Amino acid sequence: MDPALSAVRLSVREAVHTLSSEDGGRIFSTLGSLKRYLGQTENPALPGEQEEFARVHFSAFLRCLVSKLSPDWLELLPDGQLEELWASFFLEGPADQAFLVLMESIEGTAGPSFRLMKMAQLLARFLSAGRMAAVLEGQCWQHTESASPLLQETLLIRVVTLPDRLGNRLQRESLAVFLPQNYFPLLGEEIVRVLQAVVDSLRGGLDCSVSFVSQVLGKACVHGRQKEILGVLVPRLMALTQGSCLWQRVCWRLVERVPDRAMEAVLTGLVEAAPGPEVLSRLLGNLVMNSRKAQFVLTQKLLFLQYRCTTPMLQSLLGYLATDSQRRPLLVQALKELLETWGSSSAVRHTPLPQQRYVSKAVLICLVHLGDAELHDSRDELLASLMAGVKCRLDSSLPPVRRLGMVVAEVASTRIHPEGPPLRFQYEEDELSREMLALATSRPEADGSLETGSRAWWWRAPPCLLSAPGQLACLTSLCYLHSDDEFVPYDMSGDQELKSSKAPMYVRDCVEALTTSENWERWEAALRALEGLVFRSPAATREVSVELAKVLLHLEEKTSVAGLEGLRQRALVAVTVTDPARVAKYLTSQFYALNYSLRQRMDILDVLTLAAQELSRPGRLGRAPQRGSPGPASQPSSAVAPAWRAVVEERIRSKTRRFSKGSVGRGPAAGPNEFNSVAGYFFFPLVQHFDRPLVTFDLLGDDQLVLGRLAHTLGALMYLAVNTTVAVPMGKALLEFVWALRFHGDA
């Protein structure tokens, strides 16, 4: 037996025997002499003895120290001398063994006790003293053939699950450093310290590995702690990699060595934490080219299988693919697949609206980063996917989906095929459309905006003035002399446009003007006066009601009239309310007729709904004549009477003393529901032929937009006729209609 090794074994055996005594001084001296095997005294032991002590005896000796821990044992020496010497073995010895013994002792202690709290406090000191970095750093110097997989796996589990294990054991007595929101940022700081030691070693020519650190990072991210650990790690690495190629290579290797099962969690956290594509490129390098798992996560899973990334994350991800020439083919391929998904009719029908917005934003960001030459090479394929997507989205029954199709089509067509005519759509701008258009605009060049703005107002000046700097002051003063800012503008808010033609006086005159007149002012005047004339002359309207409805349904805009659609719709509603049976019969028959556009068919449904709502309104007969604007035949006193009457009633009300007040407002006047007798004309013709496709109209096929409007109209008519005698057969017919649509693709 080697005498040196036997000396270490004898010293440890003697120390263990001494710990059982009650002589504090002897225990103190024995422990002090044993510390020389840690190399922390003035006369350290030989390197071979230190290695033997650390490799064979240290863990067993620490367990012996834990077993002796008690209040009486620590009080053998005053002022906490023995406790401090006892703790120094955990804080100064091999960090990995000390950490495992501490975790083992805490988990093995049953119930709340003095020993449990002392060990927890010692572990907190262990973490605060930066010993976790020593635990991780010790595994970086282990060569692959000498490293113990079991030891590394045990350390990995204990390091990452420390908050959970300590929380389960300490319950409400847990210390602040063990809380996840405090522990994982500390772990991130320790990882930075380990990486700094690795960089220093590489500069010194020593070999090392970051595999264990990568496993710790991956497991922490898999446990859902990306924000805590990467929130500390990414800002530090962003600063350290700014001008150091060595630091960048260490970061690339750190991410490359992350296990495949944790690659998604790490990459998602890095994309979220990185403030831009440049930083992400410094941290990842060409990882997407070297790792199939990373390529799948960055180009497939984050773009197609998830939609959790925010807009800045999407910009960082796609910008990362665009910042290097080797990665740009992946960006082109991503755009092709994104547009293919965007143009899939199945995806439009079955994916939720947030995911469709997500894919649309990704398409626009890709278009911003790609150049004209790259888009030109794949123009035909991209245009085919784009046109297919536009058709599917314009056929959708959801307005946000249609608006997405319009915005993306406008931007993409301009970028993919700049030589051709650009697509232009009319849609209402909302917050989403403005955000999408902002994504599509490239970043402005860093030129002097102040100079450009200051020169904009004198661009018409002669070249001689602009060429001579001394003439600029003269030009400015000249402009101020001729300025009209001091004149007060004349108030023209009450002016009315003078018309050469008068408004028609009768309904027949309106019909004649709308069908045969070539005078556009007379045509417009007839359209504006028609609603009031219909309500004031119901008998005359009934004589030409069907003819008038036909004219209004086929009315085309012959001149630029503000609010033409509203005027036409209100006039149609007025005609339908005045003669509901005949006009409703005509409109419902035309709904399934040939040679009508989808817009006209939806107008028919809207008119029927509004007319039914007007007919079912209580007290309609007393208020109907006041709907239109007063016509030329009205007496001047009719407009003045309500004004003086209101003044008189207000004076009487103010001078009358009342001891009790009832309800201030009157309830609606009761009356018969006029929709009762004509509800069948509105409802039943619409549900008769919905399943019969026509040459240009197929409700159950491509024209699902009109089908959705038809279902809404039938539901509204059923609601307005709820208390009528025809409600029961209407309900049965509506149930059959809805039952036939239960398996529709765009339910």
From TrEMBL:
Gene3D superfamilies: Telomere length regulation protein 2, C-terminal domain (1.25.40.720). Pfam families: TELO2_ARM (PF25320), Telomere_reg-2 (PF10193). It is found in: Cytoplasm; Membrane; Nucleus. The keyword Membrane applies. Residues 504-612 form the Telomere length regulation protein conserved domain. Keywords: Cytoplasm, Membrane, Nucleus. Residues 323-421 form the TELO2 ARM repeat domain. It comes from the Eukaryota. The gene is TELO2. GO terms for molecular function: Hsp90 protein binding; telomeric DNA binding. Residues 619-641 are annotated as: Disordered. GO terms for biological process: 'de novo' cotranslational protein folding; protein stabilization. Residues 629-641 have a biased composition (Low complexity). This is Telomere length regulation protein TEL2 homolog. Belongs to the TEL2 family. Regulator of the DNA damage response (DDR). Part of the TTT complex that is required to stabilize protein levels of the phosphatidylinositol 3-kinase-related protein kinase (PIKK) family proteins. The TTT complex is involved in the cellular resistance to DNA damage stresses, like ionizing radiation (IR), ultraviolet (UV) and mitomycin C (MMC). Together with the TTT complex and HSP90 may participate in the proper folding of newly synthesized PIKKs.
